[in-house]
Amino acid sequence: MHDELTPGDIQKMKEEIEHRTKVLRPQLMAEVKRTREYGDLSENYEYKAAKQEKNRNESRIRYLQQMIDTAIVVEKSGSDDTVGLFDRVTVYIPEDEEEQVLKIVTTVRVNALEGIISKESPIGRALMGHRVGDTVQVRVNENYSYEMLIRAIEKGEDDGEIPINRF
User: Fold this and answer.
1) How does pLDDT run across 125-146, given as a tens digit for each residue?
2) What pTM did the predictor assign?
3) Burial class (CB in 10 A: 0-12, 13-18, 19+), 59
């Protein structure tokens, strides 16, 4: 599967890879070496923990590089009057009599607790390309869906403030 990433996403991933390879990797290698000297490796918890942390770092580097290598680069989408990437959208959910403000981002920057949702989520897919006043159908699964009314669209840019998820 190829993730749709913006140039900003890719740049943030490259910066994280550089930090992990140039700063964290040497520190973690030194920690593994230091704890190895504690003696019997079969009962050396510090050594096992250091190795695990080193392996997590290497795994994260591989994961980020794989995402970059297989990414489909997308630019900001949406016209001036339709919902697009990085836009802040105010919606009304009649079923719950509730208004929400959501920001549409790529999958690597999602934070649902703060209303930052993926353009590939059910809500994101339903909102993308629609205008103020449109009622959209959010399909959660084959048995349940609900409506949302778009009340406002505030055009946004990739300002770099939303971090890449740590997964």
Assistant:
1) 999 999 999 999 999 899 999 9
2) 0.77
3) exposed
